[in-house]
Amino acid sequence: MASTLLLIFLSLLVCSCGTSIPYKPDSPMQTTRFTARDGAFSASVPQGWIVSDDSIAPELSAWLLREDLAAGIAIRELHPDKMTQERISHEGMKLLASISAGFHENAAVTVEPKEFDMRGRKYCSYELDKGANRQRLVVFQSGNRYFECEAAAVKGEWRPSEIDKLFSVQQSVLSSIGEVVP
């Protein structure tokens, strides 16, 4: 009886533990860092990637492109109202991820929002399927501002292992984010 209860308890404990994020922040990074266009944060640049200072997408805080232009990581600021910000502070980043997902029309959520901590910062990620294109979005807070980081393949055919590598590059960028001190 005691061993059965112990087995049930351990099973419940394992099932209730937070889900792990399959993408490790282990991609090699350059020694150079980029700063968001408005100075909200800085982060490291992955090897084999460039930071676009192009004015094509002025609504982005940062835009990184793989050197062959086959993939991109875009970071944009989200602007929740005061009431939503209060709810996020109480309910967590999963609420912000749900709001973010609502803005991506014609896309199915394939991986439900998962909250995680990395280097003392809270994040929440989810994945979308836009036809033949998988995307991963991660929401986070920097200072008193909120951001969405989107990683996506933009050209060519991608094997699942290549998409996983892209998402690990994204995780590495997020892991390197730091506040900019004026």
The largest beta-sheet arranges its strands as: 3-4-5-9-8-7-6
Instruction: Figure out the total of helices.
Output: 4
Multimeric state: single chain
Biggest sheet features: 7 strands, antiparallel
Distance between the termini: 62 Å
Topology pattern, helix = H, strand = E: HEEEEEHHEEEEHE
- The radius of gyration over CA amounts to 18 Å
The dominant shape is: globular
Q: Give helix % range.
A: 25-40%
Mean pLDDT: 85
The strand count comes to: 10
User: Which structural class best describes the helix and strand composition?
Assistant: alpha+beta
Q: Name the beta content range.
A: 35-45%
Low-confidence stretches: 1-18
Describe this structure in words.
The chain has helices spanning 2-16, 82-91, 93-102, 160-175, and strands spanning 29-35, 41-46, 49-51, 60-66, 71-78, 108-118, 121-130, 133-142, 145-153, 178-179. The longest helix is centred in the C-terminal third of the chain and has 16 residues, at 160-175. The chain is globular. The protein is built from four helices and ten strands; from the N terminus they run αβββββααββββαβ. Strands 3-4-5-9-8-7-6 form a seven-stranded antiparallel sheet, with helices on both faces. It has a three-stranded antiparallel sheet with strand order 1-2-10. It has 182 residues and is an alpha+beta fold. Helices cover 28% and strands 40% of the residues.
Write the layout of secondary structure elements.
Blueprint: H1 2-16, E1 29-35, E2 41-46, E3 49-51, E4 60-66, E5 71-78, H2 82-91, H3 93-102, E6 108-118, E7 121-130, E8 133-142, E9 145-153, H4 160-175, E10 178-179
Antiparallel strand pairs: 1-2, 2-10, 3-4, 4-5, 5-9, 6-7, 7-8, 8-9
